[in-house]
Structures are given as C-alpha cells and as structure tokens.
Amino acid sequence: MSTLDLLVKNVCLVRPFSDDTPTVDLGIRDGQFVCIDADQDPTTAREVVDGKGLMAFPGLVDAHQHVGIYQNLGADALTESAASVAGGVTTGITYFRTGQYYLNKGGPYQEFMPELLGLSAGKFYCDYAYHIAPIRREHRDELELLADDFGVTSFKIFMFYGSHGLHGASDSQRDFLMIEEDHRYDLAHFEFIMRELTALSERRPELGPDLSLSLHCELADILTAYTNMVQADGSLTGLHAYSASRPPHSEGLAIFIAAYLANETAFPRINLLHLSSKKALTAALQMSTLFPHIDFRREVTIGHLLLDVDTPAACHAKVNPPIRPREDVEFLWKCLLDGQVDWVVSDHACCSEEQKVDPNDPDDIFKAKSGFGGTEWLLSGLFSEGTKRGLSPNRVAELVSANPANRFALHAKGDIAVGKDADFVLFDPNQTFIVRAEDSPSAQGYTPFEGQELTGRVEQTWLRGTCVYADGQVQGSPVGRYQHRPVAPAEIAATDSSLPSQSTSPSRPQA
Q: How much is the pTM?
C-alpha cells in the first residue's frame, strides 16, 4: 500500500544553515515533506521521479516583487508568476499600495483588499502574498485589520515620495498618492506608522514577532536637487546620469533617519530594501552598531549584483535606487560574502518595451520608466556569480529561501524539511546558458541581463508537490495559493476560492 504521493529519488539536498549537500530521496504526502532520507523504497509511493543527482534547493521566496504595477493585475500575475516559477520561485511577495499605478485608486484598505485578493485569485503559478504600504492617514488605523482579516504582517514606507513620483519630480503628491486633502506623506507619517506597529505588537504579543516594516531609503529633497543639477549640466547620460541624480548619500541619509525613528518609536523589526551602494550598505551596518536592539535586515537585488552603469542595457536598466558603478557592485558582493546581507530578491516589475522608454527619445534616461523584471534569473544569477566568489550553495539557499521566509512569517516555506510545504527546485549546477529575453515567460519582451552567461540552471520547479515548471515550460494551470500570514486560519483554507485544490495538478514529468 502506498504511503507517499510522490518520491523524488537521488537528489543532492541543499539546505540552508548547513555545510553539505548529501544525496537523499524526498518523500512527499499531501503537499508536504514527510520523509527526507537516502535509499527510500520506491514501492511506498504512488509516483516516483528520478532526480538524476541534480541539486534540490528549497523553493525560492522572492520577497520583493511588484506584480500589477504597470499592467492589469490579473494578466500581469499570470505572466510574471510564470516567470517566477521558471526561475525556481515558489512564493512571491508583492509590494502594493493605494494611489496611481497598481489599482489606481485610494480609499481604506478594508475596501481595497477584497478587490485586490479577488483579482489575484486563480492567477498565480506560484504561491503569493502582499506587503502593504500605509499611504493615507486612515491606513494607520487599519494595521490590525490588515493582519487579522487579510493576513498581512509586513508593511512598507517609500521614503522618496516626499516630492518625487515613481519616475521623477511629482507636481502633486496628493494626486499621485490619492491621499486626504489635509494629509502629507512625510517623516511624521512614517513615525506614526512605526508607533502604531509598536502599539500593535504590545497589544497583540502573539502577532508581534511576525510584524515588520520595510523601507525604500532615498530622500526626495536630495533626489530633486541632484536631478535638477544633473539635467542642467548635461555632461552625463544614461545610467551614469541616473545614478548621479539619485546619489548614494541620499540612501545613507535616509537610513540614518529611518534608524533613529525606529529607535525613537521602539519598533524593532526594520527591513532596509534594495541597498545599492557602498554608502547605503555602510550606513545600514553603522546603524546596526548604533542601535543593536533594532533588528535590521539588509536586502540587495540581483540587478544591483549583476549590472553596473556601463551595462549595454542602458535605459532598460533604469530602476530605483539606480544601478551603480562597478565599485559599488563589488562592495555589495563583499558584504554578501561576509554575511552582512540577509536576502537577495529580484524587485521584479514587468515594464514592457512600449512603456519603458519614450518612443520619441528612447535614450533619455529621465523619460524612461523605472523598474524591470528579473525573477526568472534570480537563482541562476546568484549561484553563477556567487560560486565564482566562494559562495556556497547552502548560503544561496539562506539568501533566497530561508531568510525571507522566516522574516515574513511564511513558516511553511524556506527549507526542505519534514512538515514544510513541498516546494523545491531541481537545479543543474553545471549547465551554462546565455540569458535571452525570448526564453522567459514574462510579458516584458526584453531583459537588462540579455547576453550574460550564467552557470547553473533551473530544470524543474515544484510547488507543494506539484510540478509547475519543467522542460523549459510552465506546467498546467495556475495553482498558486494566497499566503495568509502568519498562518491561514482553518476556515479560510477550507473555503477561500483563491486556494485551488491540488487535484488540478498536471502529470509530473521525469527529471
């Protein structure tokens, strides 16, 4: 009699916080790992897959995405979650807010979230969750509601929105963010969000350890002044100009302010997002020393690790914070190898060619839109460039799976261990390939990583024991589930239409 739904034989197990990759078999039942051991009896499983000695990584948790920012949410979710699973990502977390872009509406989250979750249901190939940005004054009073009713335990502040829009100077913060007439999205607002999170943590101690606040650390005043200077001077163009217009010290100064506010408000769990420069990462490390009681986590993106200002992608690599000079890139790598970076993400924001650059002036970096996709190259990019520098596969698993899962209350994710969701990636560490946009399921149509040679390729991606990517193709229909954090109540798991049954699983290919 079969006791397992699936047995994956002969894989090299890559676990975080380990130092080896032993050959084992993965036993799976009801979408979870139930037995991880060598030489398991294949007759105990209804289905057996030969892993052929490939590495088995935990499914990636890409903790920084922007699904729905430039495209219709439902359509974007389909194509960009397909790109996610092509890169080994089994859970993607999208930063979302009210205001222009995304759903293009304001109002309270009590009304906004049901629409967001309704539009998302049945559209993701990977599991998914949302970080939410309290933008309006009324949102400060909705943090507990967001946690209890909608499973949101992570929040965001965009520090550069003071007088800057998504792509540059904004004439009207109120119109762009759709905030109340007498409200300002400013440092006082940021302080009050932190105070509300502190109060919520004290009021709900069982929830407190899973609450965190993420910050995009750039200051609008500095950005506006330097953008005007760079444009007036005119001697710099492309990514060199954009980096100079959003200088690294703006990141550093914002980190100092954010850290002091965290100390002042006694909110201890702060995530410093997409640190792009030596000055930014140095500031982050200094603040950890100055305020050791604040649990700072430091994030970098695969774009800031693989690209510099001389990349031929030029305007197609515009992103906030900007791509930096090579010396900044090498400093990020040094800190990552020294254990001073907590996780690596894609900051995936699909921006099509038609939207990305101005058709009448495609070389003007200031007219281009910000952001690009990259989730499909996250694991291969980090593994390829990291292993050249001495990064172990186990440390890769920490950076792209375990650490973000632990921080963002995805307690069933991030590791290949008994009781965890059976999310894993079969990965060939020896296969070399050239990055081509045409090989990605993303709707973007280009990639700033075009032409890079990477070693290490995703062969298969499995989500809760279902194969969702194999043979270079996404498999079956979307089976991604919304991750209500920290844990989905039983009644939600039983009734939520956004949680498809695994009975819709496609047949599983052999590795």
A: 0.94
